Amino acid sequence: MARTSPYDTGELTDVMLIVLLCTQQPTHGYSLMTKASRITDGSMTLGPATIYTTLARMLEVGWIEEIPATQSSDHKPSEKDRREYLITPLGQEILHNDIERRRQLLAAADAFTANFALGSQKKG
User: Which Pfam families match (predicted)?
Assistant: First the structure.
């Protein structure tokens, strides 16, 4: 059976989720790498290939847009020509739907595991 792309289903991978979260404000690729590590307390580190491949695909499907670089205080003068990315309304919708899907999944997992003691299973 052919595997369906998350870009078709809207069921985001963890990397896709983090990228969309990080593009709530204009940001460039390198900044995405540092933000991803920071907001996941270091549990997720994303390399350039992962970031730029994900950004390129999200641009293609319209979940993010490339915008003119801002002159914010966190940019060094040499960074003014870097591309910046911002989530689109479609990307916001995809992100919201995926977060809701994950909440429902976690609620189901919580309900299911409530019947089991941590580290042991009921026999019977």
Answer: PadR
Contact 23, 83 (CB under 8 A): no
pTM check: above 0.85: no
- Amino acid code (one letter) for 61: V
pLDDT, residue 74, reads: 54
Half-sphere exposure of 45 (CA within 13 A, CB side): 2
> Residue 76 half-sphere exposure, CB side, CA atoms within 13 Å?
4
In whole angstroms, how far apart are CA 10 and each of 22, 36, 68?
17, 20, 27
